[in-house]
Amino acid sequence: AQSVTQLGSHVSVSEGALVLLRCNYSSSVPPYLFWYVQYPNQGLQLLLKYTSAATLVKGINGFEAEFKKSETSFHLTKPSAHMSDAAEYFCAVSFSGGYNKLIFGAGTRLAVHP
Amino acid sequence: SAVISQKPSRDICQRGTSLTIQCQVDSQVTMMFWYRQQPGQSLTLIATANQGSEATYESGFVIDKFPISRPNLTFSTLTVSNMSPEDSSIYLCSVEDHLGQKGIYGYTFGSGTRLTVV
């Protein structure tokens, strides 16, 4: 069965430090992988998506993620954290190009402190 | 990408009553999805709504509790029926979306409906 695991329900970093949010997936077929961000009291915003075109995906707000098939991972990174990055981050997977549902990870709450 | 208008943004309801949530999309879409996000939890798919046919419900969700309408390609409603405090959650609609590149799909979400049942 397909699934998504996010390691670490809470991550805390200092402003300016590297952000690393981990996501591993389980799938018997090539996946489509997504990272979404949810700011307090808001809906979901797409950060980036892996479509098999390139293993390193650049998203909005300086975030990027690298697809590693051998490790079944799609970790999200940002070189330098800003206070405004504090939010809940969700990794999600789907298994076709269309008309299919997203399976979400449990989410990782990122805190950024001065 | 698609723009989704979801209403109401929040509501406080009495137990035993029902609430209908509306989702309007600014473009025609084949599939619409309804998710539930319980407090402090991730998103769980309730059902997939295809225009012109009955919605497909995920395990643990039934039509009597969460009836869905999909009258056209830009609109859908989700009703939360006979509510109890356990139904207090954020409910979100979503559509499959083109991300501006041919053949590249994503999923756009509405801003959500924050429901509190008292």
What is the typical, i.e. mean, pLDDT of chain A? 90
The secondary-structure class of chain B comes to: mainly beta
Number of helices of chain A: 0
**What is the percent of helical residues of chain B?**
under 10%
Summary tags:
heterodimer; A: 114 residues; mainly beta; 6-stranded mixed beta sheet; 5-stranded antiparallel beta sheet; 0% helix; B: 118 residues; 7-stranded mixed beta sheet; 4-stranded antiparallel beta sheet
Structure description:
The complex is a heterodimer of chains A (about 110) and B (about 120). Chain A is mainly β. Chain A has no helices and eleven strands. In chain A, strands 2, 4, 5, 9, 10 and 11 form a six-stranded mixed sheet that branches. The radius of gyration of chain A is 13 Å and the shape is globular. In chain B, about 0% of the residues lie in helices and about 55% in strands. Chain B contains no helices and eleven strands. In chain B, strands 2, 4, 5, 6, 9, 10 and 11 form a seven-stranded mixed sheet that branches. Chain B has a four-stranded antiparallel sheet with strand order 1-3-8-7, with no helix packed on it. Classes of the chains: A mainly beta (about 110), B mainly beta (about 120). At the A-B interface, strand 4, strand 5, strand 9 and strand 10 of A face strand 5, strand 9 and strand 10 of B.
